[in-house]
Design a protein that fits this description.
By secondary structure, the protein is an alpha/beta fold. Helix content is 35%, strand content 10%. A hairpin with a 6-residue loop joins strand 7 and strand 8. The protein is elongated.
Length: 294
């Protein structure tokens, strides 16, 4: 009997352990998914993912920059060897997609540092006699030519609604709908206190009725200063009389002789012209007479 109870108890414990392991494994499998690595096509191309994703580039995308940086270091480095070694690196992590922001900038300096670290880890034989100087020059070369943006597709603009706060600490109420403001109809509040001022009275201001032509005297009232009508007549007319004055010319203009000359004198050019015309006429007459005589 005791052996049978022990066997039954062991079976219950075994079933409970299996259920616990199954439940725990299910909970682990339904937990938060691991972050994804976003592979950029180049060190200047943008990528899109969700918050927490890792941003990476390939070693082949910076092969030319590594070669140039190694050759320009002045350490007898072999740029082709260094470039071939970095091209074998399939993925170089350079940053992550930020949380709570729409985009994250991965700077060129961060990319240059990651590439130099990856090149050092390869143990390349093309780094020359001064490996640190070569790696520093490669980092500087990559940093000056790279930089990318990681966009978060799960980013949502924050929305917040704040209640309208009125003077005195009340929220959501409008002027004239509560308190002393609504107790006296037809009044306006003054400042933030409870004293009310009567509304202005505009009933004594004259106004014309639409469609009705009023005489000039009724348009402005009898209290208006000056004549009873703002009409305008002929310039120079007496506003208190109805007879208009005789219209006269604005002025008289006479031609003036030039200084030092008489208005009726014949000038020398005119005399010369008359003498010349007389001489030409006499010559023509003489020629005509001679031709007739011959």
């Amino acid at each position: 009997m005791r052996h049978r109870l022990t066997k039954t108890f062991r079976s219950v414990l075994t079933a409970s352990a299996i259920a616990a392991l199954t439940t725990g494994g299910l909970a682990l499998s339904t937990g938060t998914a691991a972050a994804t690595t976003l592979q950029a096509g180049s060190c200047t191309a943008g990528v899109t993912g969700v918050s927490g994703d890792t941003v990476a580039i390939t070693g082949a995308s910076v092969k030319a920059l590594v070669k140039a940086g190694a050759q320009e270091a002045g350490t007898l480095a072999v740029g082709d060897w260094a470039a071939n070694d970095i091209a074998k690196v399939a993925s170089i992590e350079v940053g992550q997609v930020g949380s709570g922001v729409s985009s994250t900038q991965v700077s060129g300096s961060a990319i240059g540092l990651a590439v130099a670290k990856a090149l050092e880890d390869t143990g390349s034989w093309g780094l020359g006699i001064d490996r640190k100087k070569t790696l520093a020059n490669v980092e500087k070369k990559v940093a000056g030519n790279c930089g990318l943006t990681a966009y978060a597709s799960d980013y949502r603009e924050p929305t917040s609604e704040q209640p309208t706060t009125q003077p005195g600490g009340s929220t959501g109420s409008q002027p004239g709908t509560g308190g002393n403001q609504g107790s006296v109809p037809g009044t306006l509040p003054l400042g933030t206190g409870s004293t009310m001022a009567p509304p202005p009275d505009y009933s004594n201001i004259p106004a014309a009725t639409p469609g009705v032509a009023l005489p000039p005297g009724a348009r402005y009232g009898s209290a208006a200063p000056g004549p009873t009508s703002p009409e305008f007549g002929i310039l120079g007319a007496d506003p208190n009389t109805t007879q208009a004055p005789e219209v006269q010319n604005a002025g008289n203009a006479d031609a003036l002789a030039a200084p030092g000359q008489q208005s009726n004198s014949v000038q020398l050019p005119m005399l010369l012209a008359v003498v010349a015309l007389a001489g030409v006429t006499a010559a023509l007459v003489r020629t005509w007479v001679l031709r007739k005589a011959s």
